[in-house]
Predict the structure.
Amino acid sequence: MAKEFNIQVPQSIVRSSEISDKDFVLLTKLIQNYQSQSGDIKKLTFTIISYKKLMNFINIVDRRTFVACMKSLYKNKLITDEITSLPRNGKLTISLSQTVIPDLNKGQMFTQLEYGVMSMSVIEKVGHTGVRLLYYLMSWINYEQRGKDHCYASVERMAKDIGVTEKTFIKYINILEKAKFIKVVRHDNYSDCRDDKNGNENLLLDRWNNHYFIKHDNIKKFIESSTSLLC
C-alpha cells in the first residue's frame, strides 16, 4: 500500500449544505492530489493527467455531472478557475483555493481521515453520501478529549448540515453500519409520569441522541482486502 497519510478537509465544508456529496468527494480527491505532489513545496495549481480516470475513480460516470461539480466548487470559491468544459486531451489543470489547505490556514478547523477512505472500493461500497458522512461524523470526534470518541449530534441537525433528508441520512447510516465502518449505539425515548407541585400528572419525555463511533480498523481491513483482490 502507498504511504499512509490523512486527508484534511475544512470543517466548514464538511458541514456545509451548499456542497453536494459528489462535490465533496471530488474536492477531497483534489486535496489528496495536492498533498501527493512530490517535494516539500506543493503548488495550488497542478495538472491531472486523465480526468476520465479521476471520474472513474470517484464514481462519476457522466461528464456533465463532473463539470457541474467543478462549477459548484468554483461557485463556492474552493477552486479559483472556472471549468465549463473538458479538454479533449484528457488533461485537466486545477487551481485549488488556499482556504482548503491546512498548512496555509493554521487557525481554521479541519477534519481528517486516513487516505484510504477516498479509495475507489470505499466509494463504491458506501457511495458519495457514505464517504461524506464518515467525514461528518469525524468532525464531531476528538480522540484526545475524554468522552468525545463518538458523534452524538441529532439526526435532524446532521441531515440539515449536509443538505439531505433525514430519510436519506438514516439510509446511509445503515449502509455504513452494515459495512461495519461505524458502530451505532441507539437510544430509545424514555417516558415517565410525575406529579407537579399542584398534584397534576405530567408526562415527561426524555430523548437521547444515538452515538456514532467510526471503526477505523474495519475500514482499513476492508481496503486491504479489496486491494489484495486486485493483485
